[in-house]
From TrEMBL:
Signal peptide range: 1-18
Domain MurNAc-LAA span(s) in chain numbering: 229-384
Annotated keywords: Hydrolase, Signal
GO biological process, one term: peptidoglycan catabolic process
Protein name: N-acetylmuramoyl-L-alanine amidase
Gene3D superfamilies: 2.60.40.3500, Zn-dependent exopeptidases
Length: 399
């Protein structure tokens, strides 16, 4: 008993970070410009999203000018620094393990800076480290004395293999409504037409980035709700995005909103799908023909234990980029819902309300080619970043 008590005491004495490191959330991390440079470097802010708070320190070094952030008990994973949102604002970004128990992030700076502020905001299940940099005159740049020691032992970034050309990431875009179902309407504009125009523009942007894009409709035709999900499954889609621009009574809602499946409704969805679909259409790669309803529902619930967190992860990628590029969002930008197009248990799925055409500003945005171009860029970058994060996740599961 004394030996057991000693072991328990030693385990309790081990710091939490030594047992379960904090992990970097690439979707919530970014390097952003917070102002204009007026002919010189712009003010910058480095944001590192982690699964929990960790001790950290931030300092500047010279030759060349760099920001160094040391993190204790953090695992930066296999995400590539060059994929960080806003990485093009810096000449180079590197990160990796340093000495045991520590990781390091190094940002080469486009000019002389000072650390204006550095802090960490912690929540119950996440944390964000923010380091704000203000440009200064070269004479006011005050780095640490030992620049070479700051970078000692920093590994090269991990080389993540790219998917083969025949195994491209596939996105199913679902412009809502169509045909005899125009959706919402306001001031002579129909939801069905607006989201179709947007979907075609988004398809072009994604194809330019090497993404395989499928669409539930490419013209003004009606597609049944359940058929939209089936089409995504037939194309072996990796992500399903349904696009809408609804109308609500004035003053009730405005701004973009991302919906994910509400897990509390899983059992009801299982019952509905079991009755309304052919059983071999419920789960990709699993023939449920001849199975009873209880087993079908259990298999669907099991599948959602993987797809639901992935859907929520993409929603975070998307809303974080909308926030960074100043896209107006609903007060609760991510919400749960029981929409039919979110019911797929085997494909990460979201429904994106671009805005509400009943709102004057939202309608003006959706009709504005410049706003749509900005929104398309936000969504395309979120998809590409999330897809790479998914590839890393999959490679780690295979190990």
């Amino acid at each position: 008993m004394k030996g057991l008590a000693l072991i328990l005491a030693l385990l309790l004495a081990v710091p939490v970070w030594a047992v379960e490191p904090a992990r970097l959330d690439p979707g919530g991390s970014a390097l952003v410009a917070t102002g204009r440079g007026w002919g010189g470097p712009k003010p910058l802010e480095l944001r590192l999203a982690l699964t929990r708070p960790v001790p950290f320190r931030a300092y500047l070094v010279a030759d060349p000018m760099r920001l160094v952030v040391d993190l204790q008990g953090a695992d930066l994973g296999l995400a590539r620094p060059q994929d960080l949102f806003g990485a093009d604002l810096a000449p180079a970004i590197r990160w990796g393990r340093d000495r045991p128990g520590w990781s390091r992030v190094v940002v080469e700076l486009p000019g002389p800076y000072r650390i204006d502020r550095a802090g960490q905001r912690a929540g119950p299940a996440a944390a964000q480290i923010t380091v704000a940099l203000a440009p200064v005159d070269p004479d006011d740049f005050a780095p640490r004395a030992s620049a070479t020691a700051a970078l000692r032992g920093l590994p090269e970034p991990a080389d993540i293999p790219q998917p083969a050309p025949d195994d491209r990431f596939t996105v199913m875009l679902d412009p809502g409504h169509g045909g005899f179902d125009p959706g919402a309407s306001a001031e002579g504009e129909s939801e069905a037409n607006l989201v179709l125009v947007f979907a075609l523009e988004l398809r072009a942007a994604l194809q330019a980035r090497g993404v395989d894009v499928q669409m539930t409709r490419q013209d003004d035709r009606f597609v049944a709700l359940e058929r939209r999900v089936t089409a995504a499954r037939q194309k072996r889609s990796d992500l399903f995005i349904s696009l809408h621009a609804d109308a609500l009574p004035q003053g009730q809602a405005a701004g973009a909103t991302v919906y994910v499946w509400n897990p509390a409704a899983d059992s009801r969805a299982a019952e509905q799908l079991t009755l309304r679909h052919g059983r071999d259409d419920l789960l990709a790669g699993t023939d449920l023909t001849g199975r009873d309803d209880a087993l079908t529902g259990a298999l669907m619930d099991f599948a959602r234990t993987d797809t639901q967190p992935r859907s929520e992860s993409f929603a975070r990628w998307l809303t974080s980029r909308m926030a960074l590029l100043g896209i107006g969002m609903h007060g609760r930008p991510v919400q749960g819902a029981t929409y039919s197009v979110l019911k797929s248990p085997d494909i990460p799925s979201v429904l994106l309300e671009l805005g509400f055409i009943s709102d004057y500003d939202d309608r003006a945005n959706i009709l504005d080619p410049q706003w749509r171009e900005r929104m398309v860029r936000v969504i395309a970058e979120a998809i590409v970043g999330w897809a790479r994060d998914e590839a890393v996740r999959a490679s780690m599961l295979r190990q």
